[in-house]
Amino acid sequence: MDNFQVKRILRNLLVFCVGFTMYQCMEGVWKNIPTLPECFYGAESFTMGLLGGLSILIIGSLNEKLPWSMPIWLQAIIGCIVITTFEFIVGCALNLWLCPLLGKPIIWSYESLPGNFMGQICPQFSFLWFLLSFVAIFVDDFLRWKVFDGEKPHYTLWWKK
């Protein structure tokens, strides 16, 4: 294994751990704000932390596939779609199948929010994922640049020719 491969593995591990921690913290804060809708029911889910880590890893890796000329808001929309899709798949597996099968409380439900789909995803949280995608992009780019000597990030609002 050469130095490049080791750096890539370490970068991916670091980004994953940052995403895992950010998600767990965000969920913990959300649960403790009494004026917000109650959407989270079970204890902080380790699996949702894994989902947060995987999401930031995939959103960050888009830089390896997409040109820097792509507008930052479009990258965030792609990130929103990635996270919402993961949330739906994992929500169906955990909340609609595994938790009832094991007699455990569901982890979250958006049934009380307008526009929800099967209680697993909703427009309000998809918008939150859109905003958090910016954070994921910036965190990944910063780590790639400062910690692993990657290219200095540069962003655009519109397509460059």
Describe the structure.
Helix content is 65%, strand content 0%. With 161 residues, it is mainly α. Helix 2 (46-65) packs across helix 4 (123-147) and helix 3 (72-102) crosses helix 4. The protein is globular, with a radius of gyration of 17 Å. The model has no long low-confidence stretch (mean pLDDT 84).
Descriptive key words:
globular, 161 residues, 65% helix, mainly alpha
Broad structural category: mainly alpha
Radius of gyration: 17 Å
In angstroms, what separates the terminal alpha carbons? 38 Å
Strand content: under 5%
The pLDDT mean sits at: 84
Order of helices and strands: HHHH
Major sheet: none
Large-scale geometry: globular
- Would you count the extended β strands for me? 0
Report the uncertain regions. Answer: none
Proportion of residues in helical segments: 55-70%
Structure annotation, total helices: 4
Write the layout of secondary structure elements.
Blueprint: H1 3-31, H2 46-65, H3 72-102, H4 123-147
Brief overview, please?
By secondary structure, the chain is mainly alpha-helical. The protein is 65% helix and 0% strand.
